[in-house]
Amino acid sequence: MTPRQATRARRLWALVRKESLQILRDPSAFLIAGVLPLLLLLIFGFGVSLDLKEVRIAVVVERMTPEAASLLDSYRDSRFFRVRVARHRAEVEDELVAGRLSGIVVIPDDFSARLARGARAPIQVLVDGSDPNTAGLAQGYINGVWQNWLLQETASRSALVSRPVAGPRITIEPRSWFNPSLDSRDSLLPGAVAINLTLIGTLLTALVVAREWERGTMEALLATPASRGEILLGKIIPYFALGMLAMAVSTASAVWAFGVPFRGSIAALVAVSSAFLGTMLTLGLLISTKARNQFVACQAALIVGFLPAFELSGFIFEIGSMPAPIQLLTRILPPRYFVSSLQTIFLAGDVPSVLVPNGLILCAFASVLFAMLVRSTPTRLE
Amino acid sequence: MIGRIRHLIVKELLAVWRDRKSRAILVVPPMIQFFVFTFAATQEVKDVPIAVLNEDSGTYARDLVARITGSPNFSRVDFLRSDAEVAPAIDSRRALMVVRIAPDFSRKVAAGRPAEVQLLLDGRRSNAAQLVSGYTGEIISWYEAELSSSRGGPPTPGVVVPRIWFNPNLDPKWSTVPALVAILTTLMGLMITGLSVARERELGTFDQLLVSPLSPTEILIGKSLPALLIGMIEATGMVLLGVFVLGVPFRGSIPLLYLSMIVYLSALIGVGLFVSSLARTQQQAILYSFMFMVPAVLLSGFASPVENMPDWLQTVTLANPVRHFMIILKGLFLKGLPAAEVARKLVPLVLIAAVTLSASSWLFRRRME
Amino acid sequence: MNAGPLVVARGLSKRFPDGTLALDGLDFDVLPGRVTGLVGPDGAGKTTLMRLIAGLLLPSEGSVRSCGFDTASDLPEIRAAVSYMPQRFGLYEDLTVAENLALYADLRGVVGDERTATTQRLLDFTGLGPFTSRLAGKLSGGMKQKLGLACALIRTPRLLLLDEPSVGVDPISRRELWRLVYQLVDRGIAVVWSTAYLDEAERCTSVLTLDRGRLLYDGPPEELTARAIGRTVLVRGADRKRRVLAAALRLPEVVDGVIQGRAVRLVVRDGARPPSPPDLGAPDAEVIPTSPRFEDAFVDLLGGGPKGESPLSGGNRPAIPGADAVVEAVGLTKRFGSFTAARDITFRIGRGEIFGLLGPNGAGKSTTFKMLCGLLVPTEGTARVAGADLYRSGGQARARLGYMAQKFSLYGDLSARQNLEFFSGVYGLSGRRRREAIDRLVGAFELEPFLKVDAGRLPLGFKQRLALACAVLHDPPVLFLDEPTSGVDPLTRREFWSHINAMVERGVTVLVTTHFLDEAEYCDRIALVDKGRVIANGSPDDLKDAARSDSLPEPTLEDAFIGLVEAADAREQAA
């Protein structure tokens, strides 16, 4: 190392050290980088589950026949339902309005008769549509139990009267790759890791440069021999380390505490995370440099950093189902590439056809943003 | 005393309104979020690419494939030619599901023997995979019933078509809009109150207020009412947008809507003032508010139904004001929730408001020095 | 080291993007081995000039060379040779003293033995040695300033730029800072020191006087001071000094006047005769010539101080029945945990009196002040304002006091009118009374053209007027001023005090804290607070008398302040 390089390295090191000490001493930074990620992991591990556990339904049995009793038992036995029994529909309709029930199955007066005739739809189903997702799943489960019951019923009846089963049967054999039980936790937790990195990357860094302008220390820093590259790297390096640390902790807890599989390689995880973190850090610093005011910086960080990571990354909401303009928007924001890579690394393994393009796109984002950041970082006060 | 508070309120409103930046922040981000979220926050799965691998050349298989490609849920269907293409299609996320029909499918159907259809799903997107497999199951059931009746067999009762109340087409917008009104009102209400005291403290005007004849209670009221007012205006704007632009029905009573809003905003303002009294700087106020916001919104039933949570967590969410408010809003929008029901659901919110407001008032007095 | 000038400005102009011309065609040199003062009223362009010299801004026209390098093209060289201490000292408040020093040492490439030696020398030099592990944010104003200076000196620069280093710093720390700077100058460094305190300008070898972006004077301060020789007088022996001052300022030949303890100091127009006592409405007084100060000549150079009478003067206020002391503190004590910030503070302030609360940074002055206006509740003791107990009937007591803080705590994003309306409303004025109060003050302070302007964008002088207007809208019998003119230039300060004097003449009682000892001269009585106790209480002249000695026959109030604090510290050491 030439003496000149040594001086530069020392300056950089001093800036990194300064920033790190500031992080360590700021309780709110600790909250965002240390507490919130774990909290998010807990929330996504326990709280946010897209798998319907128990649907509260009422089964209205207008006349208790053997068939009706048998169907009622099928609903009661299913692990998907918490069943309430009623005699009249009017008794439970208000409960549907109040949201204490998600659906009502009505086994009508003439149920057995209709069944014997082979009439269509001998039972009636009412579903609360105010949450379409639950409604859709509830509808599917109710139908599933019904169909199942029907099959058993016809089978036992045909056995009794020894009539051949008419009609073909097509069975469906769903097989889910990477996540055989389709546990939503396994796909949500990798997404939570992405949210954590976004928080550290944008929200914290968006505040740091703005703070230096507000407190007048930027002026002092600019008057020293430190170059703008050094000043920027001095901010990026500590937050990068913090982000990687949070990534490691989040990943470890996801894998060990929540049993999410990890089928890819650590190298791939580190590489993609670095590209993403680099992008988000530069974005945060860019916001901070442009805003020069903590309040505006924070708002901007939420709008371009946190919210896209949450809603436009495909981790909770399916991107393919969004309208075309919003799908286009997700393409110009980094989180979708990272979430898709993380889900792949955790659940599928190192799939080059996913990771390579995503990684390259993230690197491209990082380079463009870094160029913009360097351009907008002044060497003087104007 | 009322006169003094009035001036404090006017001042707070002017301070928000006169500054171009803060005015913009009150209007632009909520609008962007409202529209982007409404369309993005959908758990419905449509237009998701799937693929079909049909190894059978028989008619039944062709028919079934036609039903699948014809379904409104699947507009992008890719055809695979060989088994070897299945893994890459799923791995690279080009297909969420591959429907695989074995070579003997038609023969088995013709013979009346059970025939299989294999669905290969991408478990990385567990929710979408589950929904897609549900759709496909339904298509196949219908096809099965159709085949049965066309052959003159006894008609099977088949699939039950449910009647769906409140949202007959299961339009996701109808449920997202009330939820967003709740979330964005939370965001704005918390931001305005969370920063109000911290900002005055940072700018040094807080001492000026304290040496005026205003009592701490008056200052607290003067800080709360503007936030309440702004929160109600924001919420009204979003309700109007939801109803008139996005076509979501509003079936409840408007006085009940405003009553619930006032109770909810009071609970929220309690939280905001607490944060504001706790924080020394605006930065801390922002970050603390955030620490409250994120879990409160995630555990409100917006991202996923509260019923799906473990029981202990469901108990915890009883303390979450956003959860209660969201239920009330959804009820008022879609179900025309009757007054007795609204009153019942307001009880926990009133309790939460009492707790947050007294806690913030206690902290505010304690931190005045 | 060459002896040529270290800063060479030629035709230097700076126009900001919004069109304001901050500096207009400056030509000057700064020589090594001396302190060059940069003085001028607020908005004169002092900070802009500092930043241009440091290369933080680029000139719009002309050029400036620092240490022989052009600021436009040789930025790295300038940053190696020039040290700059910005107004807020550029310290990281969440780093310790040692960490701040280490940071700047690394940034300036000071390593190895040199670093150990320099750090040690600077710690000794600034007296910060015992505090190396304390967070910079927890230091007092004076210590922050010394740390800022130490950081700027970690590699001995050829040129040191100090932007208003003494704002908010007590007289003792300020005197120490000067001692430090002189040591540097002796080693051949050039120091540029910008300040609003003119007693500091007198200590400079040379001063650059700026006004509205133009250079009015460039030369040794004595030369400027000499222009006022024979034109400065003291009026002594008048019992109504404030009235004498007001009368003097009505005379056309008087260009400037201030109160100095019991006396009134006047500057007369060049060639004019000093006014006679009858002219001043005080036939018993005597008018004696005195030697001029830099400030006299400076104010004269800028065209004189504010003339005429304050619009706030008027009829006498009715006395408050049943209260002989308007502000009364009895045994005020405040403890924070085991630390006693103020101990047994007792005093009474009568009607129409200006009472000053002085003391070093961290001595308990602000704690006392805050207890007196109800911002802090004392651990023991009571305080009464205009007869009402502050802690029992707080709202009532607070309604009787006006309050103005150093930062002019106005709402910057509200217009001037909205600020006035807000404060009048909060103080319970309504209807016609409110309109009249606002109209009266708008007229008095000539705020009419600015009513729609955001308070944050007002020129400093008007900001101060507005803050004062907001504090006195409800015509309070008591006015509390917390460092009201900190960092404010002499002209604005004079105007401010003319208003205060007029109110005091009407019977208003004023309590003021200040670091600025010329301001303390306006007080009738002063309590000097040190280490949480009142160590002296008396008129400015009493305090000066207490400090008079053979070696110091004519002590200034600053000498008295320092002498009394040092004596108290010595007594404590001995005890």
What's the SSE blueprint?
The complex is a heterotrimer of chains A (382), B (369) and C (575).
Chain A: H1 3-25, H2 27-47, E1 55-61, H3 66-77, E2 81-86, H4 89-98, E3 103-107, H5 111-117, E4 124-128, H6 132-161, E5 170-177, H7 184-215, H8 217-222, H9 228-257, H10 266-291, H11 294-311, H12 324-331, H13 335-348, H14 352-376
Parallel strand pairs in A: 1-2, 1-3
Antiparallel strand pairs in A: 3-4
Chain B: H1 2-18, H2 20-40, E1 50-54, H3 59-70, E2 77-80, H4 86-91, E3 97-101, H5 105-111, E4 115-122, H6 126-150, E5 163-165, H7 172-203, H8 205-210, H9 216-245, H10 254-278, H11 282-298, H12 311-316, H13 321-335, H14 339-366
Helix pairs in contact in B: 1-9, 2-7, 7-9, 7-10, 7-11, 7-13, 9-10, 10-11, 10-13, 10-14, 13-14
Chain C: E1 7-15, E2 21-30, E3 35-39, H1 46-53, E4 61-66, E5 69-70, H2 75-81, E6 82-85, H3 97-107, H4 112-126, H5 141-152, E7 159-163, H6 171-186, E8 190-195, H7 198-201, E9 206-211, E10 214-219, H8 221-226, E11 232-236, H9 241-250, E12 254-260, E13 263-268, E14 286-289, H10 294-301, E15 325-336, E16 339-350, E17 354-358, H11 365-372, E18 380-385, E19 388-389, H12 394-399, E20 401-405, H13 416-426, H14 431-444, H15 460-472, E21 478-482, H16 490-505, E22 509-513, H17 517-520, E23 525-530, E24 533-538, H18 540-547, H19 557-574
Parallel strand pairs in C: 3-8, 3-9, 6-7, 7-8, 17-22, 17-23, 20-21, 21-22
Antiparallel strand pairs in C: 1-2, 1-4, 4-5, 9-10, 11-13, 11-14, 12-13, 15-16, 15-18, 18-19, 23-24
